[in-house]
Amino acid sequence: MALPLMPRDKILSGLDEIREAADLLPGLPMIRLLEYFDKNWMLDIDLWNVYGFDSRTNNICEGYHNRMNSRIYRNHPNIWHFIDFMKAEEKRVQNIVLQ
Per-domain residue ranges for the chain? Predict the structure, then answer.
């Protein structure tokens, strides 16, 4: 669904078009998906609508997680290893801010 890319004032009409198309499909999977979407996501459209945003992806977050995972060196670090990593990360960010 491309609803997150639509202007906020067009989302409801776009969702109605998707519902009409879903009614023509056999079985219930699409209808169940739309029920789930209504129940969980239509309550706060601003949470997921990215119309007009310059960056529409979470690539920055994914890049940070990749960096974090590569620096921790373990799949399941113990709490002490994780705390040491977080301290080092805090120092790194402080240095960036000071520059």
Answer: 3-47, 59-98
